[in-house]
Each structure stands twice: as C-alpha cells, then as structure tokens.
C-alpha cells in the first residue's frame, strides 16, 4: 500500500510543488495521476521511486516510512518498484535487451537465467526483432516500449509510469495502455501519470488530480 | 553482458592512468631493489667484520718488532681472542697497494705493523680492557674491533631502507591520487548512467564493484608493465661493466625477484581500495 499523509515537497528553497497531499493507493490498484503541466506529477513519482524525500508530511511504502530507509534499503525497495521514466533513461551503449535486463543484472541474476525472460518481454512489447539494437537507433515509441519492458521485467510490486504514452501515436498509446491494464490484472499496483484526460475519462480507474487536489473515488487528495 | 560493461568506460583514458601506475611501479621496484641490495651489502660487511679485529703498531713508535711480540702475548692471553697473527711485509704492502700502486719503494715506507686478530663472535673480548693492557705494555698499539665501521655500515643500510620506504609511500600516494582523480572524473562523466543503475536497484557497493573491476585490470596492467621495465633495467644495470667494477659487492639477495610480484600485488590492491572508497564516498556525498 502507498500512503501519503499531509505530504509537501519543494526543490531546495523554491516554491512548494506539492502541498498537504493525502491519499492511499491499495495494493493491486491502477491509479491515474493527472494535473496540468507543472502540477507536480513527475515530482510525486520522484517521491515514490525514492529519488527525493518529502519536505513535509510522511510517505509510507511497503509499510515503511520512506524517511527512515537506509541507502541499502532504498536500493532494495527500488527493486520492488518498476519505473517508466518520461525521458526513458535508457543506457545508449547497451542494446535493447541489455537495457531490459538491467534490473535483473543489478539484482545479481545470472544471464543464463534471465535471457529467455528478457526476450519474451521484448516480444510482448512488440520489439522482438530489435533486441540487439541500441537506443540511439530506436524511435521514441520503441524506446518507450523498451523502458516499459525494463520496468516490468523483474516483476515488481509497484509500477510507476510518467507520461508513458506521451511520445507515441494514439494506436500505440492504446496498446501501451492495454499493457499496463494487463499488468494490473496480474496484481501489480500501477501509478500512471498522464495529462491525457481523454484516455483517463475512457477508463474507470481511480484518479488523483493534482491541479484540484481531488480524487474521483471520494478521497480527499 | 559483462557487469563492467554497464558503465561505458573509455579505453584511452584508462591506458593513460595505467602508464602512470607503471611509472610508479617501476620506481617502487628500484626503491625496493636498492634497499635489499644495500641491506645485503651492509650485512655482508658487518658479518665479515664481526669475527675479526686488528691491532696497528705505528712505525713512528719505535722498535715495532719488539712491541709486536708483547702485543701478541697480550692478545693471546686475552679472553675471547682465538688467534692473533702478524701480517707479513708483503701482506701490508698489498693492503697499501690500492693507494700507492705497485711501486718498489713501498718497502722503504715506514708502514705500521698489523696484527690480524680472530675473535670469538659469541664471546667478544672487551675492547677497553685489551686497549688498556696494550697502553701499559706497548704504547702506540691500537686495538680496533671495527665497531665504528660496523655502526656506520648499519646506519647507512638503515638510511637506505628509510629512503626506500619513503619512496614507496610517495609512489603509493601518487597511485592513490591518480586513481581518486580518474574515478571522480569518471563518476562525474557517467553521472546519468550511475543514476539509472541506482534507480534500477543497484546498491552503492554494486557501483563501487564496477569501478573496482575496472581499476583491478588497470592496476594489473600498470603494475606488470612497470615491473617488466624495472626487471629489464635491473638486468641491464647489472650487466654494465662500469657498475660491476665500481660496486662489486652490490648484489641482490636470492629472493630479490619477489619484489616484482610484491609490487604488482601492492599496486593492484591499492588501485582497488582507492577506487572503492572514492566511489562509496562520492555516492554517499550525493554525487
């Protein structure tokens, strides 16, 4: 479960990006994070993948206050969280398959044990033919799908996605959305940040709107 | 996918660092080799002199032949003296030859009478007692147990060892500095890659392991290169006739070759440790 209690966040001495944020995302739920540009969607995700700590309030992940985690514990928690970054964060010198294998590699898995799994994952996102292609030679949509495959390959408990459909055409966006829904059906908690309200409105999933600090499931954000 | 390939290290930059490590390893080999050679030389000198003493009877002190008999009696009756044999005129001339050359007039010079004394190294005679007895019976006879010379040889060997240790410390400091500098530069250059690894769940020690692996190979390359050059230089140095004539006793001990694996091991461990602690420290400071 993800629990935000009166969470505030700002960069250094800058203005508050997030303020008084309260919400709870139960295990296995698919939740949209929406809001206008600059509302703090990416900042909220940064807090969730432990790249920053809140400047006010408390965030609980896996029943732990994230402010109390040691550096090693942060690394272990990150292995339970898959992230699709807005800018993909792929390593350009590695192939698509090597990028996807990254979370397994840093967790100490042997290549022989995960080779088939990585290939299967790339086939699943429709990149089975581009396993040995490096990111500079992939299109934006292809990079996005490599990033998605990397986020889910280690079967994390929580998957965070920052505008995962932002750089693809509507057809691919729908396909990516279906991928996330499928992962959610497998029991993964999905936090999906997007400004595509049309896609959110088509879905029946709960949403947290950072612009209005409201939710559509009756909780106060 | 090799673990070390997760960070795109550039081969060229590493080779330059390996060359600096090679230069330091080369100097370390010479420092250690010099220290070993000097220690062996000092030991040879002191050991060679520890069972011997001499008595010199000055030519100007009158009737040295008469005094010689008295001196021999005193020596042979002293505790700790095994034997006392006067050197012949030819033997004394041979001692003087390096300074005066093979000149026929040497026999006419007022050379001192010399007595070679063999002493018991386990029960050395008391120098002061012997000298006092000589002073009473044969004025001008001087007993020399070479203590001053042995002391100077030991001091010289100690000084050479200290200089060698100092040189090793300087080499270690230089290697550690160049590793720290290049690791910091690498961490800065690969900041984005490292951030991605850490977001994928890599612990600090995992990232440190990537650098340790890289610097293990660079240290090994530099160490082996430096030691090979030092080995070749030492062999060449030893084969130079001018050196062997000037320093005939400067020989390395039989285990001298251990210097090379020792220096390589030292350099590799130093590179690994410097890389590890630099990465861990830099990451913990939030870089």
Walk me through this protein's architecture.
The complex is a heterodimer of chains A (221) and B (287). The longest helix of chain A has 16 residues, at 170-185. Chain A has two domains: 1-80 and 156-221, 3-Layer(aba) Sandwich (Rossmann fold); 94-155, no CATH class. Chain A contains seven helices and ten strands. Chain A has a six-stranded mixed beta sheet, with helices on both faces. Chain A has a four-stranded antiparallel beta sheet with strand order 2-1-4-5, with helices on one face. Chain A is globular and about 45 Å long. Chain A is 34% helix and 23% strand. The model of chain A has no long low-confidence stretch (mean pLDDT 90). Chain B contains nine helices and four strands, in the order αβαβαβαβααααα. Chain B is of the alpha+beta class and 287 residues long. The longest helix of chain B is centred in the middle third of the chain and has 43 residues, at 147-189. The chains are: A alpha/beta (221), B alpha+beta (287).
With helices defined by DSSP (H or I, 4 residues minimum), what is the helix count of chain B? 9
What count of structural domains of chain B? 2
Strand order of the largest sheet of chain A: 6-7-8-3-9-10
Order of helices and strands of chain B: HEHEHEHEHHHHH
Helix content percent band of chain A: 25-40%
Strand content of chain A: 15-25%
Class from secondary-structure proportions of chain A: alpha/beta
């Amino acid at each position: 479960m993800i629990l935000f209690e009166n969470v505030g966040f700002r960069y250094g001495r800058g203005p508050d990006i997030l303020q008084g944020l309260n919400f709870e995302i139960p295990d296995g739920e698919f939740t949209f994070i929406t809001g206008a540009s600059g509302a703090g969607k990416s900042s909220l995700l940064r807090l969730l993948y432990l790249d920053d700590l809140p400047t006010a309030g408390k965030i609980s992940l896996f029943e732990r206050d994230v402010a109390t985690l040691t550096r090693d514990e942060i690394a272990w928690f990150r292995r339970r969280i898959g992230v699709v970054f807005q800018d993909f964060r792929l390593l350009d010198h590695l192939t698509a398959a090597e990028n996807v294998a990254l979370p397994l590699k840093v967790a100490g898995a042997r290549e022989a044990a995960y080779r088939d799994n990585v290939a299967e994952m790339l086939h699943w996102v429709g990149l089975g033919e581009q396993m040995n292609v490096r990111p500079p030679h992939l299109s934006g949509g292809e990079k996005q799908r490599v990033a998605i495959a990397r986020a889910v390959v280690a079967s994390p408990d929580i998957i965070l996605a920052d505008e995962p459909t932002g750089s693809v055409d509507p057809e691919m966006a729908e396909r990516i959305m279906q991928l996330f829904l499928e992962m959610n059906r497998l029991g993964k908690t999905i936090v999906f940040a997007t400004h595509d309200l049309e896609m959110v409105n088509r879905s029946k999933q709960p949403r947290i709107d950072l612009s209005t600090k409201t939710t559509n499931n009756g909780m106060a954000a | 996918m090799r673990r070390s390939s997760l960070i795109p290290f550039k081969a060229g930059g590493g080779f330059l660092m390996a060359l600096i490590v090679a230069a330091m390893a080369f100097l370390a080999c010479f420092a250690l080799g010099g220290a070993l050679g000097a220690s062996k030389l000092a030991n040879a000198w002191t050991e060679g002199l520890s069972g011997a003493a001499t008595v010199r009877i000055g030519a100007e002190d009158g009737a040295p032949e008469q005094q010689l008999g008295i001196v021999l009696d005193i020596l042979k009756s002293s505790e700790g003296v095994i034997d006392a044999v006067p050197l012949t005129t030819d033997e004394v001339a041979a001692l003087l030859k390096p300074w005066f050359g093979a000149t026929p007039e040497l026999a006419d010079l007022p050379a001192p009478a010399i007595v070679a004394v063999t002493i018991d190294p386990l029960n050395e005679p008391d120098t002061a007692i012997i000298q006092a007895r000589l002073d009473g019976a044969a004025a001008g006879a001087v007993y020399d147990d070479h203590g001053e010379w042995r002391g100077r040889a030991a001091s010289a060997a100690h000084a050479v060892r200290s200089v060698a240790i100092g040189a090793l410390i300087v080499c270690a400091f230089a290697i550690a500095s160049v590793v720290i500098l290049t690791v910091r530069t690498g961490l800065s250059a690969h900041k984005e890659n490292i951030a991605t690894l850490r977001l994928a769940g890599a612990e600090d020690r995992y990232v440190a392991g990537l650098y340790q692996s890289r610097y293990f190979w660079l240290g090994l390359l530099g160490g082996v290169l430096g030691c090979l050059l030092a080995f070749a230089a030492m062999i060449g140095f030893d084969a130079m006739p001018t050196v062997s004539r000037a320093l005939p006793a400067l020989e390395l001990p039989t285990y001298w070759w251990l210097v090379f694996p020792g220096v390589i091991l030292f350099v590799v461990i130093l590179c690994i440790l410097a890389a590890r602690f630099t990465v861990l420290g830099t990451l913990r400071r939030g870089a």
